[in-house]
Amino acid sequence: MSTQPLLKGLEEAISRKILGQEMLVNRMLIALLADGHLLVEGAPGLAKTRAIKCLAEQLEGAFQRIQFTPDLLPADLTGTEIFRPQEGSFQFQPGPLFHNLILADEINRAPAKVQSALLEAMGERQITVGAKSHPLPALFLVMATQNPIEHEGTHPLPEAQLDRFLMLVRLGYPTPETERDILRLVRAEALEARPDPASAVPLTKRVAAETILAARREVLGMHMAEAVERYLVQLVLATRHPERYDPALTGWVHYGASPRATIALDRCARAHAWLAGRAFVIPEDVRALASEILRHRIGLTFEAEARGATPDRLITLLLERVPVP
Fold it and tell me: What pairing do the DSSP bridges indicate for beta strands 89-94 and 79-84?
């Protein structure tokens, strides 16, 4: 039996609580299905924290929010060895990373040594403290947020860590109509904060971790034609040598997307097609996710940035020039 209806129901349930951010909800589920992590960039108040909390409420898993600050230490994330006098030995005390869903709020406010504590967890799905490695749960997703407006007291994420994020999602403001709907939703939630116990509605059944793992296997089994696979690879390769598709792009790129981007685009395109109810991947699935997957993996030259070029602009030009099968 396919797990697709359960995941579509999960998406609809979250969308009823997160208004005006349909793309964020969709990308969270794609990250969950593609076994990756999400970096979300947007102004305060755009429901970033609310979105991951709503996802956690619908899953059978543990959720932990970590507020990144300048005085945070790596051990505050990973945990540490604690001496037990009564036993005369050290015992490992797990840190907040040992949960299924992690919200790394304002990740760029912590120094590099703290950010690097996430590298092993995100890449290897384990934490090493001392001489021993501790495995993380099979269902493990980090959603990190950063504020693009305020840069005072922040530390840019190193390229190695940026590459560990499956997607970089940028959020915008909702429409006036959606903002009115948000007002009504928050007002209704405030009225229901203390419901009458006699009229309380039982909680809906949460989605089990085993269901998510089964859905991941279904996603990996999606059919992708060779022509679509070649198009996917050509799109990533074009970020390294864009001048092959347009001489005007000569000198734009300092470094292009890594092979990790190819793997990420493949898995996310499959998840996008699977959530859309198709049994195969089409070029539109690849194109729909290209910006989120490639934008944080491209480094432009100083000359290109001085002319106002951005990774998003480069990706848009490449999507226009790389032939679609």
Answer: antiparallel
Contacts of residue 176, Cβ cutoff 8 Å, sequence gap at least 6: none
Query: What long-range pairs does 147-152 form, CB within 8 A, spacing at least 24?
Result: 147/41, 147/42, 147/43, 147/44, 147/106, 147/108, 148/41, 148/42, 148/43, 149/43
SS3 105: strand
Tokens of 12: 């609809």
Task: Give the H or E element holding residue 12.
Answer: helix 4-15
Residues 108, 144 contacting (CB under 8 angstroms): no
So what's the pLDDT on residue 200? Answer: 40
Q: How confident is residue 147, by pLDDT bands cut at 50, 70 and 90?
A: confident
* Together in a domain, 94 and 182: yes
Indicate if the pLDDT at residue 93 is higher than 60: yes
Q: Look up the domain containing 59 and give its range.
A: 4-189
Q: Are strands 253-255 and 167-170 parallel, antiparallel or unpaired?
A: unpaired
What is the pLDDT at residue 204?
A: 57
Q: What is the pTM of this model?
A: 0.89
Q: Quick one: pLDDT band at residue 152, thresholds 50, 70, 90?
A: low
Count CA atoms within 13 Å of residue 304 on its CB side. Answer: 19
Do 14 and 125 share a domain, yes or no?
A: yes
Confidence of residue 102 (pLDDT cuts 50, 70, 90): very high
Q: In this structure, are 175 and 134 located in the same domain?
A: yes
CA torsion through residues 18, 19, 22, 23, sign: negative
**CA nearest to 282, candidates 321, 237, 235, 325:** 325
Q: What span, in angstroms and rounded, lies between the C-alpha atoms of 285 and 265?
A: 9
